[in-house]
Amino acid sequence: MGLSIRNQIAGTVTSVTAGEAMASVKVRLEGGQDITAAVTAEAAKELGLAEGSAVKALVKATEVSLATGAVSGVSIRNQIPGTVVDVAAGPAMASVKVDVNGGGLTAAITADAVKELGLANGSSVVALIKATEISLASA
Fold it and tell me: With pLDDT > 70 as the criterion, what percentage of the chain qualifies?
């Protein structure tokens, strides 16, 4: 089955903390970054998620925000450093491709944000992704 989700990064589950309705799943990406995904407890069980499970972290490009440095004082758990490798900007929106150690991410952001942040090939950025916006697929 094909997916329209461009951001698909392989990793390994390092822990699963299940609650009554939701589970917090920590994943180490191939590049060594640690991320957290919040999925339903039912999904975690159905996927058989456990320490050592191979997974793919899936994130829609519209759910990836970019900052020019690490951000403190924010509830967003996932901050992945990277380097801009391509910017395709139209009059309103832009697609920004970011090379992160072990893979790549695409962020769909406004053209105004690209200008205000001064994003161009080679720019250092931090991709920000809420744990609730990361889906997991068994690999």
Answer: 99
